[in-house]
């Protein structure tokens, strides 16, 4: 049952300087807008994107200013409803994508809500879900009910990595049954791409990464082949596996210069390459545009996920054609989740860490 969200403070993971300590603090429960809902968070994922925000890499977080609460992969229970909300009631089990579109800009009118001009994002444009409660504006447009057969952990697991993979592989990449796909990066997004490709009936699924542990997990999740990214003939291996001239679809899920370049090099003539990993830093890829033009390779960007598509993804989980919880490696407390985020300084963990306990009795 949802807990009372009266005037008592809530506990949240707060950082007050970029790269500084993330501490569990008592803070006010966030107010809601007339079109919003207040959600008692039951599960929230620890994502590399939250690390980027904490480190000061994200412009939205910097524009918001400090202190700040991360978290954008969430599920929970509605405990308060704004006066203009029509579709939700207290007690509803819900989730939402991290892009909350406005519905009024030119891109929303063109049904391109993932590039909404006025989008809001929990954990980036305002305080996020590393907390007992999170406010979700524009609820009727963006919040979706969770089917009874889908757990809070499963729903929160969809929040960023699987929704991002769904858009990259199915919507932007247009993967077809029987096609080949090469996925560069076996982190959270890359492994989600592997699972998505397997659920869609791809014939050849190649995962490429430096981490042997990540590649082993990729095999368990549906990859038909793996290639060690450090191999000098990495691209040649991928091309051979995919019939000699490359994959029908290549996805850069890592965002490094080399993975972007290799994804283009491993795409067959007239194939598609999707850039979904977000690059950081000054080392820019040298995209072989001569190959792109001469082989008529399509390069497609992919970002986020539209709220209107979330019921389809939730239905895939409800019908057991997709189980995002297979990627969950640890279920932890809010304090442990904050430590996990800080530890990403040392590298990204394999799989998803999910925060499921939010009230620390001793602070």
TrEMBL record:
<dbReference type="Pfam" id="PF00107">
    <property type="entry name" value="ADH_zinc_N"/>
</dbReference>
<dbReference type="InterPro" id="IPR002328">
    <property type="entry name" value="ADH_Zn_CS"/>
</dbReference>
<dbReference type="GO" id="GO:0008270">
    <property type="term" value="F:zinc ion binding"/>
</dbReference>
<dbReference type="InterPro" id="IPR050129">
    <property type="entry name" value="Zn_alcohol_dh"/>
</dbReference>
<dbReference type="InterPro" id="IPR013154">
    <property type="entry name" value="ADH-like_N"/>
</dbReference>
<keyword id="KW-0560">Oxidoreductase</keyword>
<keyword id="KW-0479">Metal-binding</keyword>
<dbReference type="InterPro" id="IPR011032">
    <property type="entry name" value="GroES-like_sf"/>
</dbReference>
<comment type="similarity">
    <text>Belongs to the zinc-containing alcohol dehydrogenase family.</text>
</comment>
<feature type="domain" description="Enoyl reductase (ER)">
    <location>
        <begin position="19"/>
        <end position="355"/>
    </location>
</feature>
<protein>
    <recommendedName>
        <fullName>Enoyl reductase (ER) domain-containing protein</fullName>
    </recommendedName>
</protein>
<keyword id="KW-0862">Zinc</keyword>
<dbReference type="InterPro" id="IPR020843">
    <property type="entry name" value="ER"/>
</dbReference>
<dbReference type="Pfam" id="PF08240">
    <property type="entry name" value="ADH_N"/>
</dbReference>
<dbReference type="InterPro" id="IPR036291">
    <property type="entry name" value="NAD(P)-bd_dom_sf"/>
</dbReference>
<dbReference type="InterPro" id="IPR013149">
    <property type="entry name" value="ADH-like_C"/>
</dbReference>
<dbReference type="GO" id="GO:0016491">
    <property type="term" value="F:oxidoreductase activity"/>
</dbReference>
């Amino acid at each position: 049952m949802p807990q009372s969200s009266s005037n008592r403070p809530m506990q949240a993971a707060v950082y007050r300087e970029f790269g500084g300590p993330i501490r569990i603090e008592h803070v006010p429960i966030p107010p809601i807008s007339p079109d919003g809902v207040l959600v008692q968070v039951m599960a929230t994922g620890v994502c590399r994107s939250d690390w980027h925000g904490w480190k000061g890499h994200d412009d939205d977080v910097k524009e918001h200013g400090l202190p700040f609460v991360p978290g954008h992969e969430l599920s929970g229970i509605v405990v308060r409803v704004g006066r203009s909300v029509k579709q939700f009631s207290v007690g509803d089990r819900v989730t939402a994508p991290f892009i909350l579109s406005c519905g009024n800009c030119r891109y929303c009118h063109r049904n391109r809500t993932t590039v909404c001009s006025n989008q809001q994002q929990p954990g980036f444009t305002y305080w996020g879900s590393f907390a007992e409660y999170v406010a979700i504006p524009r609820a009727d447009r963006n919040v979706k009910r969770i089917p009874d057969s889908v757990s809070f952990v499963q729903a929160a697991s969809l929040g960023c990595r699987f929704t991002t993979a769904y858009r990259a592989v199915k919507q932007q990449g247009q993967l077809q049954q029987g096609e080949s796909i090469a996925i560069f990066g076996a982190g959270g997004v890359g492994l989600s791409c592997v699972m998505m490709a397997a659920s869609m009936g791809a014939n050849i699924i190649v995962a490429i990464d430096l981490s042997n542990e990540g590649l082993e997990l990729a095999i368990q999740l549906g990859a038909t082949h793996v290639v060690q990214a450090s191999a000098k003939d990495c691209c040649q291996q991928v091309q051979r596996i995919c019939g000699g001239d490359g994959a029908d679809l290549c996805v850069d899920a890592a965002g490094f210069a080399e993975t972007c370049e290799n994804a283009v090099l491993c795409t067959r003539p007239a194939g598609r390459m999707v850039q979904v990993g977000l690059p950081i830093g000054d080392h820019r890829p040298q995209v072989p545009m001569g190959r792109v033009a001469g082989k008529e390779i399509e390069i497609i960007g992919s970002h986020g996920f539209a709220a209107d598509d979330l019921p389809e993804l939730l239905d895939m989980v409800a019908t057991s054609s997709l189980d995002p919880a297979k990627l969950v490696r640890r279920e932890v407390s809010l304090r442990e989740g904050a430590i996990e985020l800080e530890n990403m300084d040392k590298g990204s963990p394999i799989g998803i860490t999910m925060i499921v306990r939010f009230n620390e009795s001793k602070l």
